[in-house]
Design the sequence.
């Protein structure tokens, strides 16, 4: 899918302004570091910058997205644009050495060569040291773009040789609007936009029947919690556990439950604009009347503790959820 500067400017206005100004003045740095959360547009921005440099029919700084070079960059087949990804769990010294050998050759189709290193923080120590030498003695026309979600794990010496751009988290409202433009129902779009900051993941969730059913199950579970322990426990066995099977799915389900309590808290604080389950506003207002702020906060803490246990212990899902249900009903936290 073609990406344009105007699109990315909606989500990363500061980064786009600085990069486009550099392009307009012809002052391209030899090395950039794009840092920020997953899904904030770092990869899309790096490919758009590459196309702006290699496009055969550029209009000002805007690539056409249709010429041979633009298409080859999109498909990963341009001979002068190289993307390095982790080989297994890390980026190895051999990968950086092969890159150096490739860049020692003349550019195939222009006087410029560009490389993108994804998850640059996953370089081994030897790989990072090899890259440092590469950055210290850049060849004319060479542009490096390093992408990372773990800025603090990079060598200070590497960071100091790059122009650093920080990518801000995409506001959920903007992401929800994007999903709505893709024909995702509003109640699903807003929830997906809070679950992830990634356009691709949010769109995938928005189109997934599993996610829509997960939302329905979580809302039903809260209704059960308002009744009695036995019904809620039966519901966990009959509905929750069969649907939320993998650890990532269970963690997501707990997030969806947490958002219900957050919404009730927002109602009590008069922050209706922050509500996520907006199609359930009448129910939320009724539920909020039956709980104190202290109780809501305590229940949110219980859910967060359950998430922590899920990710740090081998506690069975059944036992984890049963204990959470009983704790939410009795109003006591994990010990």
Sequence:
């Amino acid at each position: 899918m073609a990406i344009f500067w105007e699109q990315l400017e909606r989500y990363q206005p500061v980064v786009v302004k600085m990069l486009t100004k550099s392009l307009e003045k012809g002052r391209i740095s030899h090395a950039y570091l794009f840092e920020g959360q997953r899904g904030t547009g770092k990869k899309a921005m790096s490919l758009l910058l590459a196309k702006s440099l290699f496009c055969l029919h550029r209009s000002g700084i805007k690539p056409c997205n249709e010429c041979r070079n633009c298409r080859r960059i999109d498909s990963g087949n341009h001979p002068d644009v190289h993307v390095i990804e982790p080989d297994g769990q890390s980026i190895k010294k051999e990968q950086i050495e092969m890159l150096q050998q490739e860049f020692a050759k003349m550019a195939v189709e222009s006087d410029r060569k560009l490389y993108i290193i994804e998850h640059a923080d996953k370089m081994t120590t030897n790989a990072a040291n090899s890259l440092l030498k590469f950055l210290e003695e850049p060849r004319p026309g060479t542009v490096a773009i390093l992408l990372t979600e773990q800025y603090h794990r990079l060598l200070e010496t590497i960071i100091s040789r790059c122009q650093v751009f920080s990518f801000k988290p995409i506001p959920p409202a903007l992401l929800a609007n994007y999903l709505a433009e893709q024909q995702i129902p509003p109640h699903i779009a807003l929830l997906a936009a809070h679950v992830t900051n990634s356009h691709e993941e949010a769109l995938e969730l928005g189109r997934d029947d599993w996610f829509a059913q997960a939302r329905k199950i979580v809302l039903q579970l809260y209704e059960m919690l308002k009744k009695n322990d036995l019904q809620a426990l039966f519901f966990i066995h009959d509905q929750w556990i069969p649907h939320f099977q993998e650890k990532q799915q269970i963690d997501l389900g707990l997030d969806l439950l947490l958002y219900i309590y957050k919404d009730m808290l927002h109602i009590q604080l008069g922050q209706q604009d922050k509500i996520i389950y907006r199609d359930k506003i009448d129910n939320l207002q009724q539920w909020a009347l039956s709980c104190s702020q202290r109780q809501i906060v305590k229940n949110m803490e219980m859910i967060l503790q359950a998430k922590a246990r899920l990710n740090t212990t081998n506690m069975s899902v059944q036992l984890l959820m049963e204990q959470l249900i009983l704790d939410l009903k009795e109003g006591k936290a994990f010990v």
